[in-house]
Amino acid sequence: MLADEFGREVTGVRVSLTDRCNFDCVYCHNEGLGDTRGPMDPQDDEMSTDDVVRFLEVAAEFDVDAVKFTGGEPMLREDLAEIIERTPDQMEVSLTTNGTFLPGRAEALVDAGLERVNVSQDALDPKDFAEITKSGAYEKVIEGVKAALEAGLDPVKLNMVVFEHTAGYVPRMVDHVAENEGLQLQLIEYMPELTGKPEWNVDIERVHGWLAEQADEIEHREMHDRKRYWVSNDDGDGRGMVEIVDPVENPTFCANCHRVRVTHEGYLKGCLNRNDDLKSMGEMSKPEIREAFREVVANRVPYYGEYMIQNADGEWELNDKYIGEYAGI
Ligand SMILES: Nc1nc2c(ncn2[C@@H]2O[C@H](COP(=O)(O)OP(=O)(O)OP(=O)(O)O)[C@@H](O)[C@H]2O)c(=O)[nH]1
Ligand SMILES: C[S@@+](CC[C@H](N)C(=O)[O-])C[C@H]1O[C@@H](n2cnc3c(N)ncnc32)[C@H](O)[C@@H]1O
Ligand code: SF4
Ligand code: SF4
Fold this sequence. Notes:
329 residues, alpha/beta, TIM Barrel, twelve-stranded mixed β-sheet, 9 helices, binds guanosine-5'-triphosphate, binds S-adenosylmethionine, binds iron/sulfur cluster
């Protein structure tokens, strides 16, 4: 297994299969690569099925045991089932999707080897949903969640970004997962770095505080040291798990970051928040990909805590050490 100089072993990879999307969510960071707006048809810049599989085979050689497929909207890839089918057996396969294409396709993905799915659902109301996603596909997403549960995906996590437009929904979403078996809720701290709208920020500590009051039990997940709150519904006959993903200015989160990313164009990337460490796999052979993977892992640094450090006033700023060396400025 490969580890960086901060002792962070790389156990997972996060592969973006496309930057195309049928939604236009107001907050979207597109995995650190900007805009998803553009043509819906397959694009020449996307990794081919063979490119994705070749990379996964190399990652498996380094004992990587989990892959997350994401995007853009990964289900726009017609070859998704084939990619999953050809993913090395040792890897747990999960998918993050907006859910609209799950109806009619969830079962085939499970047959191919998909084990878990996260579906982005930021509201429980079609009007609010449309405002956030710029799409009227609310019913399709609800159908998608149902299809995922019926296909046996376990758990089905609902992803909700907590920001100005959604913060008021948190209690209803928590009840919703407590009342519906098979669902879990993942509350994602809004990342303003990549959207340029700091005014939408919500203090995630307040959400932690509220959940701590509601919870029967609190756990820590190994990945990112994320907190998980187990909450019962009002009638006491249902219980749901709520996980908080709170990476912003959180050195503990970064210290427990064990994944390398791959962009849809086949660039290896050591950190979501950085684009100055990209390494193209282009036409590389397997031995060359092995070398590139080693190099990207070796150059990984915890973003908050090393790449960005706190000054005397407690503000985060770029560590001088990386100016020029990585940041290219
Ligand atoms: N900054 C940062 N954000 C992350 C990281 N991992 C997840 N996130 C945020 O959380 C969002 C949701 O992640 P998902 O793809 O649903 O899944 P996950 O939380 O990574 O993994 P699972 O919970 O195991 O399914 C991502 O799109 C990011 O916004 C990370 O390592 N760094
Ligand atoms: C980029 S999307 C790609 C997968 C798929 N299209 C979807 O929406 O689930 C992956 C996740 O990133 C989250 N996300 C996007 N922009 C974000 C931001 N600015 N802050 C926090 N999370 C964000 C979304 O909510 C979604 O759950
Ligand atoms: S569905 Fe996912 S990729 Fe598409 S715009 Fe929304 S968050 Fe971004
Ligand atoms: S180092 Fe920190 S910001 Fe970068 S991907 Fe890992 S957890 Fe996210």
